[in-house]
Design brief:
It is a single chain. The protein has about 650 residues and is an alpha+beta fold. Helix content is about 35%, strand content about 25%. It has 10 helices and 25 strands. The strands form 6 sheets. Strands 5, 6, 9, 10, 11 and 16 form a 6-stranded mixed beta sheet that branches. A 5-stranded mixed beta sheet has the order 12-17-15-14-13, with no helix packed on it. A hairpin with a 2-residue loop joins strand 19 and strand 20. The chain is elongated and about 180 Å long. The N terminus is likely disordered. It is found in: Nucleus, Nuclear pore complex. It comes from Popillia japonica (Japanese beetle). GO terms for molecular function: structural constituent of nuclear pore.
């Protein structure tokens, strides 16, 4: 018993300006893209064969024309019984467009933000001061090759100091549109949302530095602007050649060649394309050493999940292109300090992988790719072929999150030793780079119609596959094994060195502990001796003070106070002696009085009244004198 799973997909379509785009015999749609600046994703920009950009807004199921922008001379004459104009034959018709990163309208108001960053105006040109682009060389193989340009291009303008990031008060942002002509010229215009049939201001053509060879200046078909920092513009022609350029401000002293045939609405550009690399794609799987050329339109597709990576679809299959210098370019531009530019900034060559092949180079039968889409959950690509077959290919490796560096960024900048360079990247990343093949074996999806491949072609195809496995896969696995053994030996040796260091550290720790104990004992001895010495010093100071011939002022005052105290003591002694005599006299009087009272039976009232006041007065005086004596004793510290 078998089960079939059927998925029903319901989509909605709208007819867009049928009178011009659908029923016109002279106008063809070259490209259509959603405008990234649209808030509700309802604006579509359409490029037509009459050198016009038409902006439409879809709302409530109806299309509304927003603006029409002329981007070139309108074709007039055409070849008989065809839709091909004379201008198109010479490459003077726009064939594709793409949106560059948004810019601020000139004359906007800014406020400062607390976040510090590089000035947005002319940022890239300032950061790339004195930077020489060295044109790198892709390994010449069956899949990709690179044209070498010995000339260097330098970017001027001094780097300005870092200041606070400007923030725009209004929401006036314009989106540059890069327009590609068939002859390779690139123009820039700006498309807004407000007015209809606004006079178009187009700038171009953007100078290409260095100048492109004549072999490349034909049959350009696609343009793609990667929103990196700085923006990278990729151009493709029908011969399978990709041009990788950097979009930067133009030098102030650049001299434009006057052109009398240039339309009035075309102005001189203020930007230029600095080419740093070319890539040659293999259009059709070749089974022999002979390079059989094939011409077909190439469409470039952006990979939103990874900056610096895009796909190229064409009649003969699908290629995956990765620009490896984007990460280094980002790091260099984001530096806060102005350092000497790295000389190998553009030396990392781009890689081109043949993912799906739909044509043999020796055969005329083609199974073209008529539909292409990227699916991000899980990361994969979907391709619809001419025979109605839908191909799904998982590409999880292209969407991997970059692994952080093992060493800190500060140490990475100053690393010099081979060990630091070896440990600068995670080991799995190094192995992935080694196992990365420069030549891949694509998935074959050849057309089902037509004659079957001959035995010779099948044998050559088998030979090619075995050669790829032998030269790329097995060789890379051998390199990976050698790298693993090298890393193992290095880490083993490093482990032994670390063990020896640990033993030395333990020994040093024991020595330090013993030394600390001896120092503690010495400290206690020194402390006791110091206390003894301080006591001896005090005694010496006392003896010295005693033997001093002339007393000091403090000593004189103290002696004066002592003399005064002695005088007071003598006075108090005399007073006490007088009091004692008075007490003796009173005691004697009391004794005599008692004797007399004993002889007499009683005293009269008159006598008692006379004696009683005298006794009270004497008692009061005695009490007063005793308190004074006690006070004097307390002052003189006498017991």
């Amino acid at each position: 018993m078998s089960f079939a799973l059927v998925a029903l997909l319901i989509s909605r379509s709208f007819s867009l300006h049928e009178r011009i785009l659908a029923f016109s015999n002279n106008i063809e749609v070259r490209q259509a893209k959603f405008h990234p600046g649209s808030v509700q994703d309802g604006h579509i920009l359409v490029l037509t064969s009459d050198n016009f950009l038409r902006l439409y807004k879809i709302e409530n199921g109806e299309d509304q024309a927003v603006g029409t922008y002329q981007v070139g001379v309108q074709p007039m004459g055409r070849f008989p019984k065809t839709k091909v104009s004379f201008l198109e034959a010479f490459g003077d018709v726009a064939v594709d467009f793409d949106f560059a990163p948004p810019e601020l309208q000139p004359g906007e108001q800014f406020v400062e933000k607390s976040l510090k960053t590089v000035d947005s105006e002319n940022t890239i040109s300032e950061k790339l001061e004195d930077l020489s682009i060295t044109y790198s060389n892709l390994s010449a193989n069956a899949l990709s090759s690179t044209k070498i340009y010995p000339k260097r291009v330098t970017f001027e303008d001094e780097a300005k100091p870092i200041r606070k990031q400007p923030v725009m008060v209004t929401n006036s942002v314009r989106w540059p549109v890069l327009i590609l002509y068939g002859n390779g010229d690139v123009y820039v215009t700006y498309v807004g949302f407000k007015s209809i049939n606004t006079p178009t201001t187009i700038k171009g053509p953007l100078p290409m530095m260095p100048n492109v060879d004549e072999d490349f200046q034909q049959d350009f078909c696609s343009i793609l602007c990667l929103h990196s920092t700085p923006p990278i513009v990729c151009l493709a022609n029908c011969g399978g050649i990709l041009l990788h350029t950097v979009l930067l401000p133009l030098e102030d002293d650049y001299e434009f060649t006057p052109d009398e045939n240039r339309p009035n609405f075309v102005e001189n550009p203020d930007q230029a394309l600095y080419m740093f690399e070319t890539v040659k794609l293999e259009l059709g799987l070749s089974t022999s050493a002979e390079d059989v050329g094939h011409n077909c339109p190439i469409l470039l597709h952006r990979n939103v999940g990874k900056v610096g990576h895009y796909f190229a679809s064409h009649e003969t299959g699908i290629h995956s292109i990765n620009i490896n210098c984007v990460d280094d370019l980002h790091k260099f531009v984001s530096q806060t300090t102005v350092d000497t530019p790295e000389p190998d900034l553009f030396n990392l060559t781009s890689t081109a992988e043949y993912l799906i092949c739909t044509k043999m180079a020796t055969s005329e039968e083609v199974n073209p790719v008529i539909g292409f889409a990227i699916y991000y959950n899980p990361p994969s690509i979907l391709a619809l072929l001419g025979n109605g077959q839908l191909v799904s290919l998982t590409l999880a490796a292209l969407f991997m999150i970059p692994t952080p560096d093992v060493l800190p960024a500060d140490n990475l900048e100053t690393r010099t030793s081979p060990l630091k360079q070896m440990l600068s990247e995670p080991f799995d990343v190094v192995i992935q780079k080694i196992l990365k093949q420069s030549t891949t074996q694509p998935i074959l999806k050849l057309p089902s119609t037509g004659p079957e491949p001959t035995q010779q072609e099948c044998y050559e195809l088998l030979q090619r596959a075995s050669h790829v496995f032998r030269e790329e896969y097995f060789k890379n696995h051998t390199k990976a094994r050698e790298e693993i053994e090298k890393r193992l030996k290095t880490l083993t040796k490093l482990k032994e060195i670390q063990k020896a260091d640990i033993e030395k550290i333990v020994q040093e720790k024991q020595k330090l502990q013993d030394k600390a104990e001896s120092l503690a004992e010495k400290y206690e001895d020194i402390k006791d001796k110091q206390e003894e010495m301080s006591k001896r010093c005090e005694k010496l100071l006392i003896l010295i003070a005693k033997r001093k011939a002339e007393p000091s002022n403090a000593e004189k005052e103290f002696m004066k106070e002592l003399n005064e105290g002695e005088g007071k003591i003598e006075t108090y002694k005399k007073a006490i002696l007088k009091i004692k005599n008075v007490i003796k006299y009173q005691e004697l009087q009391m004794k005599n009085w008692h004797q007399q009272t004993a002889k007499e039976s009683s005293l009269g009232n008159a006598q008692i009244d006379a004696i009683k006041p005298n006794l009270e007065d004497m008692t009061r005086k005695i009490t007063t004198m005793i308190s004074e004596v006690n006070e004097y004793k307390a002052q003189l510290n006498l017991k």
